[in-house]
Amino acid sequence: MNSDARELRSDHLILVADVGGTYLRCALARAGAVLNTPVRLERDRHQSLAQACQHYLSDAARGLHLEGASIAAAGRKHDGRIEMTNARWGIDPAPLADALGLRRSRICLLNDFEVLAWSLPALDAADRVEIPGGARALAGQGSPKGDPSGHRVVLGPGTGLGVAATLRMGDAWHALATEGGHAGFAPQTRFEQAIGDLASSRLGRVSWERVLSGPGLVLIHEACAQFRGSPWHPTTPAGVVQACAQGDPIALESVRTFIELLGTFAGDLALLYGSTGGVMLAGGVLTEIAAVMPLDALRARFEAKGRFRPLLEAIPLDRIVADFAALKGAAMAYCA
Q1: Which residue range forms the structural domain that includes residue 52?
Q2: What does the alpha-carbon distance between residue 179 and residue 75 come to, in Å, rounded to a whole number?
């Protein structure tokens, strides 16, 4: 889009929405910024996204002229629409535009990690928490500052493993949706190889998503029990984290291994995308883990890249804690 078109779109009052499996979060935005306090709606109370948006707008936008919408949803974007991963909603911009009385060209549709990538330049200090540890901290040199105009990456383990990048091109940011979580798993220790062997015996090819996800944490826990010759009973990701919090040695080793593997993968992504502007972590699994175990090992493995250690030591590594980062990203994407 040329600069004149960007300036025109920046004047639009738009709806921004983040559609998850359980909740729909909505707000109004203009010029890449959210204007009001977001509202959370229960998705199951509405038959469709269009109906939910109309419900929200009937109050929030009463008397205002809406000119566009930017919608993020958890699912793969294909042929201009999104089939949600964990909900029975298909999101198609054409009927949504018709229902909201908008031009179809003014519906911006993004997947959940693409929209987080758009949010990265808009996040402030209160929206993120630094992953502790690393060589600079040990040397008393303070936090890495990174390059404010450098490329950035966001990744996060949840039901799967999302990856997206924010690239700086000239004076503008561009988000890149990827399937990076499906890159091949690369174990570095005998135990990590045992994890890969267990996953391969059941799944064939082993991607990073097979180990860095909620189901992956359960698989690591089972592999750890086998590797240590300890009893194991099927459990859930939350159950592994709870056992870790209670001091169970197999769960402790499993969660620590998960953290280390996440650091290794995050460091690989930093090198792959040249993300000197920083790497951001998201996802509910990491939030639960951070409540019961320090994340220093994540930073240590992030930096453990041989000849490229000095480069990784200078890259910020943070965890997104903002409740409405996706809405910020949706607002920015509409104006891009």
Answers
A1: 3-120+324-335
A2: 12
pLDDT of residue 207 exceeding 50: yes
The three-state secondary structure class of 276 is coil
> 178 with 110, same domain?
no
Closest CA to 121 of 70, 161, 172: 172
Which residues, including other chains, have CB under 8 Å from residue 67's CB and lie 6 or more apart? 12, 13, 14, 102, 106
Residue 10's domain is classified under what CATH number?
3.30.420.40
Question: Parallel, antiparallel, or unpaired: how do β-strands 14-19 and 68-73 relate?
Answer: parallel
The Cα diameter of the chain in Å comes to 67
Angstrom distance (rounded) from CA 304 to CA 134: 10
Is there a contact between 39 and 26 (Cβ–Cβ < 8 Å)? yes
- Give yes or no for residue 329 having a pLDDT over 90: yes
List, as own/partner pairs, every contact residues 37-43 make where C-beta atoms lie below 8 angstroms and the sequence separation is at least 24, other chains included.
38/323, 38/324, 38/327, 43/19, 43/87, 43/89
Same domain, 90 and 178: no
Tens-digit pLDDT profile for residues 277-301:
999 999 889 999 999 999 999 999 9
Q: Which residue's structure tokens are 């109050």?
A: 59
Alpha-helical regions (H) of 18-134: 49-60, 93-100, 112-119
Give the CA dihedral 176, 83, 236, 297, nearest 10 degrees. 0
One domain, residues 155 and 59: no
